Amino acid sequence: MISGINMLQVALYLSIVLILVIPLGKYMAQVYTDGEPYLLYRFLNPIERLLYRLCGIQPKKEMEWKQYLFAMLALNLLGLLAVYLIQRLQIYLPLNPQNFPAVPPDIAFNTAASFVTNTDWQAYSGENTLSYFTQMLALTTQNFISAATGLSLLIALIRGLTRQESIHLGNFWVDTIRGILYILLPLSIIFAVILSSQGVIQNIKPYETISLLQPTTTITEQKIPLGPVASLVAIKQLGTNGGGFFNTNSAHPFENPTPLTNFLEMIAILLIPAALCYTFGKMAHDKRQGWALLAAMFIIFIPSLSATIFFEHAGNPALTSLGIAKSGNMEGKETRIGVLNSALWAVATTATSNGSVNAMHDSFTPLGGLVPLWLMHLGEVVFGGVGCGLYSMLLFVIITVFITGLMVGRTPEYLGKKIEPYEMKMAAVATLIMPLIVLCLTAIGCVLPLGKMAIANPGAHGFSEILYAFTSMGNNNGSSFAGLQANAPFYTIIGGIEMLVLRYWIAIPVLAIAGSLARKKITPSSSGTLPTHNLLFIILLISIIITLGTLSFFPSLAIGPLVEQLMLWRQYGH
What is the pLDDT of residues 308-323, one digit of tens each? Predict the structure, then answer.
């Protein structure tokens, strides 16, 4: 049974996220709106201007969408090469007290693609593979840049919706620097200090060896990994990057030591994606539009969360039949975290594109693991990643407006901009490419011996492991069903390519739509204009999202987690 205190915790969690939406959303809108004063401007503006001078950036010079795209791709390509080279050369670089050798080429490529695309899929064990220098300069730095990239793309799309008869979408370099300097960096510093006060470690000491209190005949001591953890954890959560300093991620007591850190890290996962809805409404000069999108996200999120909590509290029939699962399904979960917080984290991390975990999703019940998988199948729109979640949601808004416009025989409009075939084609390309690539790669993984060799479990669960892996990499999530051998060359190479293709295949149409919309006039609303802020539109939007996700992935879910659950019920009784 789900206790009243558990329900109160969930209510408190969602309430705090909602309370923080307005102040943070308003602040972010001010950061990206020229001429509006914003917090920290007086202190950080000299640094901002210095960065412009050092980098040769002309802050007043705006870009058209192709220039904006080129700048974004150039920065990300530079980041890809830098992260790869640092891993390959880490044996020669400083801050490597454990003398870790160079990372193998395939894993280095996979990791570089992963962190550049904000996926943070990890095919390695951090405490056994990467030096402090690599963790800090390559991964933590890239966490800031990839999150700021998502913010910049969203702001460009918002400008496309709000400007008229213009070819300019702003300046990518300015947007990215402001996103890091005024939003991500201050929040991360505050959060890292709070985490450190609770016991999350932050140091560059060599690993320590301690004597065991209860030694065995063969093991008398243990090596304790250390490192600059708090700084990485702060931006990994706030930037919806995910991943972790240690292999066990946020189940590790050095990353997530107390109930308070667990609660705060879960808030950090949703914080910026939720607040961006208010930012959108404020920049669009119609806050109702932002609230409508946020409402749609919560309407999908809350039932998904309730279902996962219910399925995990119901327990695994295989364990229940043995009388050893009295408090729900605790397999793969930390006893200090429990079923509720594991389920809540799992839903939050897959509703966004965060991907950090505090429990092993592979050990969830089949239906409990289905929900996080299904949330990723919706296309990273239920909050989603920083920036990329909301611009993916706006693609679905364009599709919904277009479909409803056809239903009533009127030219579709959104925020006064006519949605024409070009925008619809770009939105269709961006939303349909993910299911196509994920399903094709899953099929290949199930057929090729190289794909099947990495599966730890046969049958339906093994299929779910492959489907989850390609879904997670394709949706910039990064979590996994841990039964899959993630460092197998098939998954490191193919997965790295998938992460790059799907991140930028979606980003390019988004900027193309922004450029097209910016050139159009804003048509004043009339009695025939479809309202896009009321309950009817919210229901239509949710219906389109769920319909597309269901049509694309239901057959694969049916032969994966659904079949596995039916097999458990048949073998052990409902």
Answer: 999 998 887 777 766 6
